[in-house]
């Protein structure tokens, strides 16, 4: 695979080896073409139809991670098969809407289906062929179209595609439908009735393995050989020699290579050819023998003129049960990590990656999931899906998430809350603090002090709460009144987050009490504020100035209490003394005698 | 709920709202609007679930919603309300409030009027978080702590209450025709009398404990003093706004932010909540229970713990709000999940008649046409 580096005009290549991926610069372009240039790494993330794929598969992925943990692994197979089918139905749902990318999705579905049959369902000999027949039938829909065309015509048996339809049915092992079609031909040629009856008999007696019956594979094999011999006898007897079509069909039933190769156009692909050949030559094929036949069929079908496509090598690797190669080829050919990431994850759950003794076993799964999820994270919307994928990457998922989540832009508070919830649920405290700090700073810049405080409470960020409180106190110092009273009056327990905040709340309470003329309570509060040492230095003068009018109240502050508290804080004591002198002077001027300070104070600190 | 079908819509759904049906007809709602968020190009879309005579509907989720029309929206759709049958009001993350008009003949949506930057900071945009309307009046609130009143037929803004709040106002609802209630991110409910010119609320209520931010609010359809709120920690609170501060009932509902709470408009014994934790809960309380209700007309014994108040002799039951007596441990309150587990956040829900629609961050819409109310 190569990518064009726009800046330097050079190409990038990479090779994937055990434990490593090597990326290098090269001037040479890759040989051959990628499957379809329509999907490029960055663009397909943005296709609206593929978004449905991402979202629906995310849902399936999350469900898969928790499937039957208490159930023994051999009983999990039906669940895995069902999950595999879910993935495929999601692909098909997208296909229905997306005509352009159908060829890619068809190929993906084809590969996934084969992987399901061979790896996940792991059909044994006997059932294997039946599954492969289903696989081929599913991916060769044009037969039914042709049939419709033929049946809708006036005389179906004389339609130019009639025999193509019949032969196609036979090639796909759809004997019932073939028989029904042949009846129409038989009706046209009453003279040859005997021949048609014979063909009908042969077709009806064609044995198909029934996995649910008590018949063993050996027994089935015996019956099949018997039938095969009977068909051969009919051919040798020249029973069909007067009708070239029927004779041709007879040869197909015998699995004659040359006849099958004559049907290249009807078969379309080498893997259809493979399955048909197995159907008529080796219906009891074992999974381990598949690759012999696959290789030879591919060689026979594709002559030297046709180019082997990437899809072919992927399918071949599947028949060889080389999962590693399948994943590697898919990663290279498909520019999108979606397919390999999900398929590998499912295969890993089926414990298939380990048994193949890969150099980096389950790390392969994690590598692919990390790549896929990182891609999702670059999307402005799909980053939320990526979180679940990172969660299920035990080694590096958390690190990746921590790095990526901080880069999500936070345009609104609602989005910030969602990102925050992701971080909190995973105890990513550093990220929580950083996000809250960003939001709080932004709020502060816009003078939304309440919002800023709300964010610092969420982060339990005492330092920021202190900062906000300082802002309030600054405002008060300059303007003489509090702003945002609705906030300060209702701090509640969050007041305890930082000393400064507590001071702010209590100081406001002091003002309230004073305003309501609860002087003794106010004074007590003021005293406790002074003694508790939570007042910022800049505020001490203010506090003392506030104390002044209270000192004039008769019963309120005892000078003894005031001086005793001042003893513990020398500077405060000095200020207290000054205040007391001031108050005495005031009293002197106004003639109000309230009290006299104890002489000891005066002597010590003057 | 195994047979729930999701309709994937390739956009994260921030709001879903049923188009109102006339009260006189007993029709079920057919059309709903959705708004998207977190896209480079956000959209407002109209969908139809077209009730095809109700034949053969086994489970409530049959029939995919079909897209009728959509229109680009500047910024995230943070709120969406139907002003009337044809007009939709949206609140945008750019701070704008827009009226969209639906033209049923051509099946298109167009912008009827736009107030850009209704919410703003001095040097920046401020998202408009919520909008509520009582035609022709529209009230919007935003992260800038401002309350703005518009009239649908007027160009400019009717009235602005500057600095209504020092924190973000998350939601607003009408209490009476002239009174609105807002909730903010420091856990306060504020009542505003729109007839008064001042810039301060007529009342402030808040939680007694931690000041958990409140994200959504809804008023009881019949009893104007009963209000439900949902908070950041997922608690559902029921308030009696006539009372003092604290909520009357507090219930642990979800494990993450509750984004929307709705009383059923015609069957208010049913309440619905949805949350960031991916669940949608249906709360059902029975007003005709044998359990004594704590708040009734005569005495005003507020508080959840006392169970000694007797139920009134009879007759007044319709006036008692069963919500005011509840806490989740009592048997008269039932909750049930309405969605399969493991969805991403359910951002919005709306319920009308027997139909419920909700939208998620997993870019899916769920419609249930057989809600048991």
UniProtKB/TrEMBL annotation, chain A:
<keyword id="KW-0653">Protein transport</keyword>
<dbReference type="GO" id="GO:0006606">
    <property type="term" value="P:protein import into nucleus"/>
</dbReference>
<dbReference type="GO" id="GO:0006406">
    <property type="term" value="P:mRNA export from nucleus"/>
</dbReference>
<dbReference type="GO" id="GO:0031080">
    <property type="term" value="C:nuclear pore outer ring"/>
</dbReference>
<keyword id="KW-0509">mRNA transport</keyword>
<comment type="function">
    <text>Functions as a component of the nuclear pore complex (NPC).</text>
</comment>
<dbReference type="InterPro" id="IPR011502">
    <property type="entry name" value="Nucleoporin_Nup85"/>
</dbReference>
<keyword id="KW-0539">Nucleus</keyword>
<comment type="similarity">
    <text>Belongs to the nucleoporin Nup85 family.</text>
</comment>
<dbReference type="GO" id="GO:0031965">
    <property type="term" value="C:nuclear membrane"/>
</dbReference>
<keyword id="KW-0813">Transport</keyword>
<comment type="subunit">
    <text>Component of the nuclear pore complex (NPC).</text>
</comment>
<dbReference type="Pfam" id="PF07575">
    <property type="entry name" value="Nucleopor_Nup85"/>
</dbReference>
<keyword id="KW-0906">Nuclear pore complex</keyword>
<protein>
    <recommendedName>
        <fullName>Nuclear pore complex protein Nup85</fullName>
    </recommendedName>
</protein>
<dbReference type="GO" id="GO:0045893">
    <property type="term" value="P:positive regulation of DNA-templated transcription"/>
</dbReference>
<dbReference type="GO" id="GO:0017056">
    <property type="term" value="F:structural constituent of nuclear pore"/>
</dbReference>
<keyword id="KW-0811">Translocation</keyword>
<keyword id="KW-0472">Membrane</keyword>
UniProtKB/TrEMBL annotation, chain B:
<keyword id="KW-0677">Repeat</keyword>
<feature type="repeat" description="WD">
    <location>
        <begin position="207"/>
        <end position="249"/>
    </location>
</feature>
<protein>
    <recommendedName>
        <fullName>Nucleoporin 43</fullName>
    </recommendedName>
</protein>
<dbReference type="InterPro" id="IPR015943">
    <property type="entry name" value="WD40/YVTN_repeat-like_dom_sf"/>
</dbReference>
<feature type="repeat" description="WD">
    <location>
        <begin position="251"/>
        <end position="293"/>
    </location>
</feature>
<dbReference type="InterPro" id="IPR001680">
    <property type="entry name" value="WD40_rpt"/>
</dbReference>
<keyword id="KW-0539">Nucleus</keyword>
<dbReference type="InterPro" id="IPR019775">
    <property type="entry name" value="WD40_repeat_CS"/>
</dbReference>
<dbReference type="InterPro" id="IPR036322">
    <property type="entry name" value="WD40_repeat_dom_sf"/>
</dbReference>
<dbReference type="Pfam" id="PF00400">
    <property type="entry name" value="WD40"/>
</dbReference>
<dbReference type="GO" id="GO:0031080">
    <property type="term" value="C:nuclear pore outer ring"/>
</dbReference>
<keyword id="KW-0853">WD repeat</keyword>
């Amino acid at each position: 695979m190569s990518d064009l580096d726009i800046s330097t005009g050079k190409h990038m290549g990479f090779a994937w080896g055990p434990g490593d991926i090597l990326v290098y610069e090269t001037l040479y372009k890759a040989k051959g073409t990628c499957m379809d240039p329509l999907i490029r790494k960055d663009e397909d993330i943005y296709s609206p139809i593929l978004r449905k794929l991402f979202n629906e598969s995310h849902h399936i992925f999350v469900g898969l991670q928790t499937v039957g943990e208490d159930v023994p692994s051999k009983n999990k197979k039906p669940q895995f098969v069902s999950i595999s089918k879910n993935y495929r139905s999601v692909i098909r749902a997208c296909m229905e809407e997306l005509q352009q990318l159908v060829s890619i999705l068809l190929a993906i579905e084809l590969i996934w289906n084969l992987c399901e049959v061979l790896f996940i369902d792991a059909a044994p000999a006997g059932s294997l062929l039946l599954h492969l027949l289903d696989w081929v039938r599913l991916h060769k829909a044009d037969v039914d179209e042709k049939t419709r065309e033929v049946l809708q015509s006036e005389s179906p048996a004389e339609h130019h595609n009639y025999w193509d339809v019949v032969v196609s049915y036979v090639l796909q092992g759809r004997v019932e439908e073939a028989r029904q079609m042949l009846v129409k031909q038989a009706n046209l040629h009453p003279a040859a009735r005997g021949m048609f009856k014979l063909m009908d008999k042969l077709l009806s007696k064609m044995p198909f393995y029934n996995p649910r019956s008590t018949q063993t594979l050996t027994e089935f094999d015996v019956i099949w050989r018997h039938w095969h011999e009977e068909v051969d006898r009919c051919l040798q007897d020249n029973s069909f020699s007067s009708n070239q079509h029927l004779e041709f069909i007879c040869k197909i039933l015998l699995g004659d290579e040359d006849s099958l190769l004559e049907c290249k156009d009807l078969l379309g692909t080498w893997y259809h050819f493979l399955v048909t050949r197995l159907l008529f030559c080796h219906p009891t094929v074992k999974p381990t023998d598949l690759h012999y036949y696959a290789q030879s069929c591919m060689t026979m079908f594709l002559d030297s003129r046709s180019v082997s496509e990437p899809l072919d090598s992927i399918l071949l690797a599947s028949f060889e049960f080389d999962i590693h190669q399948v994943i590697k080829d898919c990663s290279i050919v498909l520019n999108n990590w979606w397919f390999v990431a999900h398929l590998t994850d499912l295969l890993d759950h089926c414990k298939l990656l380990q048994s193949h003794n890969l150099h980096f076993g389950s790390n392969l799964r994690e590598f692919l999931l990390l790549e896929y999820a990182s891609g999702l994270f670059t999307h402005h919307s799909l980053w939320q899906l990526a979180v679940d994928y990172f969660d299920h990457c035990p080694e590096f998922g958390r690190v990746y998430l921590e790095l990526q989540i901080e880069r999500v832009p936070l345009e609104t508070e609602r989005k910030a809350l969602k990102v925050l919830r992701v971080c909190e649920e995973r105890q990513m405290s550093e990220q929580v603090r950083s996000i809250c700090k960003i939001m709080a700073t932004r709020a502060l810049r816009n003078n939304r002090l309440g919002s800023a405080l709300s964010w610092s409470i969420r982060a339990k960020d005492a330092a920021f709460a202190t900062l906000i409180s300082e802002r309030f106190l600054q405002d008060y110092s300059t303007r003489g009144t509090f702003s945002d009273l609705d906030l300060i009056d209702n701090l509640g327990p969050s007041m305890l987050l930082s000393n400064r905040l507590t001071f702010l709340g209590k100081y406001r309470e002091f003002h309230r009490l004073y305003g309501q003329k609860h002087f003794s309570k106010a004074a007590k509060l003021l005293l406790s504020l002074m003694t508790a040492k939570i007042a910022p230095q800049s505020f001490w003068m203010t506090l003392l100035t506030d104390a002044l009018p209270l000192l004039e109240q008769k019963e309120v502050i005892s000078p003894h209490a005031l001086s005793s508290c001042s003893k513990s804080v020398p500077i405060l004591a000095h200020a207290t003394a000054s205040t007391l002198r001031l108050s005495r002077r005031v009293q002197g001027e106004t003639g109000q005698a309230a009290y006299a300070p104890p002489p000891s104070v005066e002597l010590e600190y003057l | 709920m195994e047979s729930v079908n999701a309709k994937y819509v390739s956009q994260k759904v921030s709001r879903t709202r049923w188009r109102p049906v006339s009260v006189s007809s007993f029709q079920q709602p057919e059309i709903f609007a959705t708004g998207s968020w977190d896209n480079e190009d956000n959209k407002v879309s109209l969908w139809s679930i077209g009730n095809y005579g109700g034949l053969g509907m086994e489970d409530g989720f049959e029939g995919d919603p079909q897209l009728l029309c959509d229109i680009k929206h500047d910024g995230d759709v943070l709120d969406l309300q139907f002003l009337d049958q044809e007009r939709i009001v949206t609140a945008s993350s750019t701070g704008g409030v827009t009226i969209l008009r639906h033209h049923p003949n051509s099946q298109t949506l167009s912008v009827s009027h736009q107030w850009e930057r209704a919410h703003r900071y001095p040097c920046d945009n401020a998202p408009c978080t919520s909008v509520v309307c009582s035609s022709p009046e529209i009230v919007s609130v935003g992260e800038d702590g401002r309350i703005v009143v518009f009239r649908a037929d007027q160009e400019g803004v009717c009235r602005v209450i500057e600095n209504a709040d020092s924190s973000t106002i998350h939601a607003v609802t009408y209490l009476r025709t002239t009174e609105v209630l807002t909730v903010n991110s420091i856990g306060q409910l504020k009542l505003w009398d729109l007839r008064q010119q001042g810039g301060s609320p007529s009342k402030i209520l808040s939680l007694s404990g931690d000041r958990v931010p409140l994200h959504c609010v809804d008023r009881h359809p019949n009893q104007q003093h009963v209000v439900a709120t949902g908070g950041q920690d997922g608690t559902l609170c029921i308030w009696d706004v006539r009372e003092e501060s604290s909520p009357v009932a507090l219930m642990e509902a979800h494990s993450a932010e509750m984004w929307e709470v709705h009383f059923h408009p015609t069957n208010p014994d049913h309440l619905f909540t949805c949350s960031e934790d991916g669940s949608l809960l249906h709360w059902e309380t029975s007003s005709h229970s044998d359990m004594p209700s704590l708040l009734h007309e005569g005495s005003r014994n507020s508080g959840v713990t006392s169970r000694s108040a007797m139920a009134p002799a009879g007759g007044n039951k319709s006036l008692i709000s069963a919500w005011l007596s509840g806490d989740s441990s009592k048997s008269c309150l039932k909750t049930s999940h309405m969605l399969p587990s493991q969805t991403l956040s359910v951002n919005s829900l709306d319920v009308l008649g027997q139909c419920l629609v909700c939208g998620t961050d997993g870019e899916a819409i769920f419609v249930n046409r057989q809600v048991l109310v």
